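hey can u check if this looks right to u? its 90 residues, i copy pasted from the old doc so theres a chance i mangled smth
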Amino acid sequence: MTVSHEDGPIAAYGRLSQRCALVKPGARVAQSDPITRNGSSRASDQPHLHFHVSPSTNTIESGTLPVTFSNTTAKPQGLRRGAKCPTLPC
């Protein structure tokens, strides 16, 4: 699943089950809107999420932008150890 932001970047969410999507392709979403439930794509035995934000539509080759979630503090190394993001089970 990808989300195109109005200011240009693309957020990519991977390893999700299609049956867990809460929005249809092309739908407009706002910050904090739930867009999916946490479900496995069957590529692993546990549900998990691959997430990154790219500066352009070529999400694989364009690199990744730094991200800080609202329930964490900005750290150059990434998320704070032990920090949790709430998920909705699929």
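The first strand starts at residue 2 and ends at 4.
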